[in-house]
Amino acid sequence: MRLILGSASPYRAELLRRLGLPFEQIPGQVDETPNRGEDPAAYVERLAIAKARAAMPPDEPALIIGSDQAAVLEGEILGKAETPERAIAQLRRASGRCVEFFTALALINNTTGAGQSAVISSRVHFRRLSQASIARYVERERPLDCAGSIKVEGLGIVLLQRLEGDDPTALIGLPLIRLTAMLAAEGVHLP
User: Fold this and answer.
1) How far are the Cα atoms of 56, 67, 104, 176 from residue 117, in angstroms, in the given order?
2) Which tens digits make up the pLDDT trace of 112-163?
């Protein structure tokens, strides 16, 4: 059965390669606008499911993975910075604070119609950061396409005081611990 990653993210693809399974990466187009009053966890779960459905092949058996992530500070979704100035502003706000990351995962079997989804929460405690260290980090790491402007798998780790969560890969964008359990439920056993 085909395994499809319904995402354009190079970070998610890199994580999925760790499992040693052949897969295709087919990003689908999904409107990522939050619904009015939507809880961040519900928001990312809705998007993960929508991304899996958008990548679903019409007539071929497949398992399709969707994922989405949001960084939340004081109830506000930070989103991807897209510019160095916004990344600096996000990190300045996060300095000395705790940011909660919600990473949603969906797995759909298009043959049986079975679907599984979950949201993994991680709490990231930032050190107190100087303006100079933030600027150096943004210049070197270019975290413009990352939720909350942080790449914990790279230099971003030095900005942190501590992490709380059940799956470190969730912070990078694809919770492999939960994904392996979902795949096992579909008959894909690893290793």
Assistant:
1) 16, 9, 7, 13
2) 999 999 999 999 999 999 999 999 999 999 999 999 999 999 999 999 999 9
Query: At 52, which helix (H) or strand (E)?
Result: helix 40-54
Evaluate whether residue 6 is within a structural domain. Answer: yes
Domain that holds residue 159: 2-185
| Largest pairwise CA distance in the chain | 54
Q: Which residue in the list 31, 39, 59, 68 is annotated as catalytic?
A: 68
Domain membership of residue 85 (yes or no) is yes
If DSSP states are collapsed to H, E and C, what string results for 101-137?
A: EEEEEEEEECCCCCEEEEEEEEEEEECCCCHHHHHHH
Q: Are 118 and 177 in contact (CB under 8 A)?
A: no
Q: Is 68 a catalytic residue?
A: yes
Tokens of 187: 């008959």
1, HSE (Cβ side, Cα atoms, 13 Å): 15
